[in-house]
User: What shape does this take?
Amino acid sequence: MMPKSNQKTRYSKIKPIQRLPDWIKPSIGKASELERVQKLVKRYRLHTICEEGRCPNRGECYASGTATFLLGGSICTRSCSFCQVNKGTAPMTVDPNEASRVANAVLKLNLKYVVLTAVARDDLADHGASLFVSTIHAIREVSPKTSIEVLTPDFWGGESDKEEGIKVQKDRLRAVLEANPICFNHNLETVERLQKEVRRGATYKRSLNLLHAARDINKNIPTKSGLMLGLGEEYSEVIHSLKDLRAVDCQQLTIGQYLRPSLAHIPVKKYWHPREFEEFKTIAQDLGFKKVTSGPLVRSSYHAQK
Assistant: This one.
């Protein structure tokens, strides 16, 4: 059994603002398909963000032949206040057979579209870049027709990277892009003002720089990012973030409602209405995003294959 985070947070005594609104209704999908994927994931000793993050759409995605695998174990070295994934300073040893197990699961499930993401591994020299590369190659060996999207952390090493700065970050990024994923995704998560509270260890500017660098390295690979709403952001701040993403030539966008995983996580400040998500979609399209998925239950990998 994986160890649970023992981190204490100031959010545990904060009462949720209200019950879920009527429009928050997760798609259940086929129970048989959900059970089939869950059993196979357990059999191959894998982790998926679908399960670790308790994604409300996992049944629907499994039924459509899509899954998001979580690389690098199940313990993240960062402590983002919104995320359900376990956190700790002593993550698991990297499993040299993880890539082949993911590939076998992809083949067994006959997945058409796979998203590879990872816990932040600030303890590793390359911050987990090689995990993406080896898994992409392993999947292509057994299932060459499967499309592969990557959703990466920022590949930043904190104090150890300060001298070389963006060059080190770009070298790690370049290694992933040379494996030629169909899409490169890195989430901005929230507006600039809320970054420190929501994304501990990451910064707004660093994430924008990473997306910009991805376009510089390979313009044939579309870039993608995502925002969560409901953390206390203002309407104008959301628009500002959309403009910042377009300024670094980000082509694809997801916008969804933050749903508090537990009382240990940052509370929801507002439930945005579906009409507002549609409005943001229209604005994003007018700004030049080529693909926009926006709605209360939208997550980074939702309808990624469409």
In short: The domain at 31-294 is CATH 3.20.20.70 (TIM Barrel). Residues 1-9 have pLDDT under 50 and may be disordered. The CA atoms of residues 19 and 271 lie 10 Å apart. The two ends are 36 Å apart (CA to CA).
